[in-house]
Amino acid sequence: MKKVVTFGEIMLRLATPDFLRFGQSEVYTATFGGGEANVAVSLANYGVPVDFISRLPKNDLGTACMMELRKFGVGVENLVWGGDRLGIYFLETGAVSRGSKVIYDRANSAVSEIKPGMIDWDKVFENAGWFHWTGITPAISQSAADVCAEAIRKANEKRITVSCDLNFRKNLWKYGKKASEVMPELVAGTDIVLGNEEDAAMVLGIKPEGVDVTAGHVEAAAYESVSRQIMERFPRCKKVITTLRGSVNANHNSWSGVLWDGKTLFEAPTYQITHIVDRVGGGDSFMGGLIYGLLTWPDNSQKALNFAVAASCLKHTIYGDFNRVTVDEVEKLMGGDASGRVAR
Q1: Among 37, 63, 253, 258, which residue is least crowded by beta carbons within 10 Å?
Q2: Is 122 exposed, middle or buried (0-12, 13-18, 19+ CB in 10 A)?
Q3: pLDDT tens-digit map of 18-50
């Protein structure tokens, strides 16, 4: 199997423990996380060869971050070193009617100051068959957006499949441009597009019809119009996938997804996640599962989608950004075993 390459920023995550608010906690739990790195870890856990590309500061934090990725089997040989700091994000985990909060501290991070030409994409894409990026990277800075565009162009030249998670983050677009000004050009070079209703509206100006996204249940078929509009606007796109999250409260979500291939709308089973441990990274775990599924069962979109939804359902039970599950565990849930019984 050819390798998958992901590109983006990985950060130090500092989270308050035990549902404490920022003003209550005297300690923070330190881990690492970031959209594209989270996808890479999922794929490595499934046995897919994968490289994560980023720029890290040459200090103890950057080295610790690199070693954490290496521990999972993620390729880090093509990381570039430079800059003064690793980005940070702070997480306050919500409960019941109080939502979670994220505060970013990533200004002047190593990745935000990356420039075109710093990464040798010809070398990076040797023996690569898939490239993944997210809307988070071009939101960081103009130069990060330029490098993302550089990577997409090179992947297109080499006929490498390109996927993206639209991932709109309103708190990141601060350098003078809107997502709608930057993202369409990048999406135009993308084959597989993942998003949700907010992403499509804020990034591409495309809105679903007849959907109340605040309700506990979301009708999957209502998103077919969004998928059609994306394919009409971006002819390169072959599949559009939408995650369907119904939020009953901070601890109880329904979770599913749909996939449109231009002809058929595939719908996955809906899971009720009633005791969420950590939902951060849920979309990334979906993307990791989807890439694995499409690589493993290229002619079975339904199975690939079902794998992605089951994988991300399990991620909600795991603390931290990374989805630390195996193929066997995902397939067990796909098969209907949600009992949670002790394995011994």
Answers
A1: 63
A2: exposed
A3: 999 999 999 999 999 999 999 999 999 999 999
The structure tokens listed for 145 are 């957006």
**CB 66 within 8 Å of CB 10:** no
Residue 131 and residue 125 in contact, taking contact as beta carbons nearer than 8 Å:
yes
Write the single-letter amino acid at 211: V
Q: In sequence order, what are the residues at sequence separation of 6 or more whose Cβ sits closer than 8 angstroms to the Cβ of residue 187?
A: 164, 166, 193, 203, 204, 230, 234, 237
Residue type (1 letter), 53: I
Instruction: Kindly list the structural domains of the chain, giving each domain's residue range(s) and its CATH number in brackets, ordered by start.
Output: 3-334 (3.40.1190.20)
Residues of the chain above pLDDT 70, percent:
94
DSSP secondary-structure letter at 180? Answer: H
How far is the C-alpha of 330 from the C-alpha of 51, rounded, in Å?
23
Instruction: Show the tokens assigned to 257.
Output: 């997804």
Asked if 54 contacts 8 with a C-beta cutoff of 8 angstroms, the reply is yes
For residue 216, name the pLDDT band (cuts at 50, 70, 90). very low
